Automatic annotation (TrEMBL), chains A, B:
Annotated TM spans: none
Protein name (database record): Kynurenine 3-monooxygenase
Enzyme class: oxidoreductase
InterPro entries: FAD-bd, FAD/NAD-bd_sf, Kynurenine_monooxygenase
Cofactor(s) needed for function: FAD
The keyword Lyase appears for this protein: no
Length: 485, 485
């Protein structure tokens, strides 16, 4: 194994010589994905000397997705971070609003279920690559920020605050030193692995996989470049034990995702092994979608099947030297459309703690984890709830009645009522945990009152609001007493 | 690295040549602790050709505890397994009944809180070493069972069904082959590590540590060999954020355990670094216990501080070749006194599945995990709940009122009412998960009705029973509707 000398902190970490002087500390960021590039931008704005090492090539120069660009759901918590760094208007140019779920039932009927009863509340489809490129451009405008590509982190020595890298092109191995290392290297984080394997402290860690995997497919644009199905919605084909979804892209296409069990059921990823059976499956379960996807079997066999995992861990930091952020600390399944938003919110929370305790990194890291982890644990659990809701409950009558009541409550009482979905998605000043507790209690109240005939969609809406509020408070209070809190 | 040839299945796995013929399969068990030795005994009784490899020396020949033997809580689920293998009467000789918790408050007052309102329901203190020795003796009486000590498993090749070992004395490395490998090698399982590191299949895994660690101490017998405090109770000194407990041994001593935070609070494991501060801590918080422990500081600095971890994982098996059981699959914290009992219950469950699907190991392993994992997940969560209950709630007035009501209900209606503690501990025919769901709903019902003045300990007991039953059903039904199950 060939290793270069460890570079000195003052000289070599930031090869372009961008040290702004004694007051500025050298921060090494591992990973220039969405979270890492936003972090680099913000820390650059704050005057730190920032070096970012990314294992992939520069996505602005090389088409690394090797196919259609993946899109993501972008909403208010993410946008709060864009406002913090002052690029919300530029990001807005990349967004396609989605006002609700467009449900495609087994008979080919469609109906739209809006995300909110308030017109200004909607989510957006955004290109991962486009947004990442913008963040890299913005970060690089700061002369105290440098980004290096094709450098894969293989481990971090968190006691020495050094990281080991391999250059993909030269195959050279080298070690970088810094005052602070922040790993934003995603669900497979090399630094988190070093925490786990190092056994230098008690590291609580979980990786948890759903029984389902996913595969990306596509609906191509019309010959004239238009959208084959309604542009401004998140399309869902719920089929109880599996589902298909589609999000629009700016070029008129949709990125389609199939969520399906690896092993269970008549059709699963393990037995969809040839064109005939894939077509049979789609013809039987998604005939309307199949009609839009002449390219189905090509996509199906070219694109990988990927697992759906949740990662939780603690502590996120070691002393005041190294810190995990974004998916590296808390990867979640995609069903609440909050993965990117949660990582962006990390930066907002981190920035606020930095304002309070600047200069004392150990306290910054401790306070950040203390205030933040309860919320990222909550969104992880909410995302798994939504997996079941999306494939199953959206087509369930009592669930649909609940949604109707909630839409009416949000429309009539825009300041007094927010559904769980709204609390999570559109109320960026409420933490995920509080949104989860209140949202779950509201759901329980409405479902039980509907089931018991205590409320009905035809009741006076003010009466419904009062009953829902009272029952929600009673549920929260009962839980509080039972927990002896 | 020196390696011997892989031994052939028929000849060398079981060096004593105990193959009983073609119908008998070779089963390799890794670990001869409580779970592994019971499994060896049961599989020996069933006629399998069993070889057990244990990393430690034979505890019947060497005093490996290097101090006082550790004791454990033994109760009905564990005893069901002892009945299965026909040694319950021998085990009974090793037991010291504990009828309840003896609470020692901060002022030195004591009061006993029984585990059940039914006189025949109590738990037992038992020596880990004594019980393990009995199980080894019983297993070795079967000529188709062989046990090898000082052989540490370092990894398992689950695709080839082979395990690699190091002999502690000769330092020799060797590989053993078998038809089936079952790992009962505890919380640090080598085979589980091979599952995790192998990345051959999606392996969900969590290790989760409490903020507290523990340290074993002791109360020595009186000079005449008698017990210094009441023999037939589990003693607790609850102090909200930490606690001390003591369980009796047959020799008149008590094994005492301090549960304390590593970092938080005025006194913690990180700052109890010299005799003076340890004595100051005990003098302030546990003066009555200190008076019984002239040997305190010796014990404190001789014995290690150990972490409190929960392990969950899935799948427990790879195809029909290898299987994790006991702590290797589901290590839990000790606060429900169910760790050993849960591992023993594993054997009962496994044996029942084996009766159904004998000969088809893959189905046996799948069915076993399917029926068992929900229950071991539940006892893991219940054990963490009890951590908070024991150090805090047992001294809480509303909790004490609930316990009084439950004791009265169990006494008056022995066949109609069982508390959560009874459901978990004394109702071995109800799974842990059902015990958890029903027990938590009952607790919530009683605590809320007490808090709201709907019931009071002075009410007619039949009236209380009716209200508790109705409210418990209502809570379970509300949860069912909210979960849309």
């Amino acid at each position: 194994m060939i290793e270069k000398e460890i570079k000195s902190k003052s000289e070599k970490v930031f090869p372009n010589g961008k040290d702004l002087g004694g007051a500025s500390q050298n921060i090494l960021i591992i990973g220039a994905g969405l979270c890492g590039s936003l972090l680099a931008l913000r820390l650059g704005q704050r005057g730190y000397n920032v070096a970012v090492y990314e294992m992939r090539p520069d996505l602005r120069k090389v088409d690394i997705s090797a196919g259609r660009s993946i899109n993501l759901a972008f909403s208010d918590r993410g946008n709060k971070a864009m406002k913090l760094v002052g690029i919300d208007e530029k990001v807005n140019q990349l967004c396609i609003p989605m006002h609700g779920r467009m449900i495609h039932d087994a008979n080919g009927n469609t109906f739209q279920s809006n995300y909110s009863g308030r017109d200004h509340e909607y989510i957006n489809s955004i290109s991962r690559g486009g947004l990442n490129a913008l963040l890299l451009d913005e970060a690089e405008q700061h002369k105290n920020v440098s980004i290096y590509f094709n450098k894969k982190c293989t481990s971090v020595d968190f006691e020495k605050t050094t990281a080991r890298f391999t250059d993909y092109r030269t195959k050279e191995e080298f070690i970088e030193d810094a005052d602070i290392i922040i790993a934003t290297d995603g669900a497979g984080s090399a630094m988190r692995k070093s925490y786990y394997l190092g056994k230098k402290f008690l590291f609580s860690f979980s990786q948890s996989y759903l029984s389902h995997g996913y595969k990306e497919l596509s609906i191509l644009p019309k010959p004239n470049g238009g959208y084959k199905i309604h542009k401004n919605a998140l399309h869902i084909w719920p089929r109880k034990s599996f589902m298909l979804i589609a999000l629009p892209n700016l070029d008129g296409s949709f990125t389609v995702t199939l969520f399906l069990s690896y092993d269970d059921g008549e059709y699963n990823f393990n037995n969809l092994t040839d064109e005939k059976i894939v077509l049979e499956f789609f013809q039987k379960e998604f005939p309307d979608a199949l009609a839009l996807m002449p390219n189905l079997t090509d996509d199906f066999f070219e694109n990988p099947t990927a697992p759906l995992g949740t990662i939780k861990c603690s502590p996120w930091h070691y002393k005041g030297n190294t810190l995990l952020m974004g998916d590296a600390a808390h990867a979640i399944v995609p069903f609440y459309g909050q993965g990117m938003n949660a990582s962006f919110e990390d930066i907002v929370e981190f920035d606020a703690v930095l304002n309070k305790h600047k200069g004392d990194w150990e306290t910054v890291f401790q306070e950040y984890e203390k205030s933040r982890k309860k919320d990222t644990d909550a969104i992880a659990d909410l995302a798994i709830d939504n997996f079941h809701e999306m494939k199953d409950h959206v087509a369930n009558p009592i669930f649909q009645e609940k949604r109707k009541i909630e839409m009416a409550l949000e429309k009539h009482f825009p300041k007094e009522y927010a559904s769980k979905y709204s609390l999570v998605t559109f109320n960026e000043d409420i933490g995920y945990r509080e949104a989860m507790l209140r949202g779950r209690a509201q759901d329980k109240a409405i479902l039980n009152m509907l089931s018991d005939g205590v409320i009905s969609p035809s009741d006076d809406i003010q009466l419904i609001l009062d009953k829902v509020k009272n029952e929600t408070e009673a549920i929260l209070e009962d839980d509080r007493i039972a927990g002896l809190r």
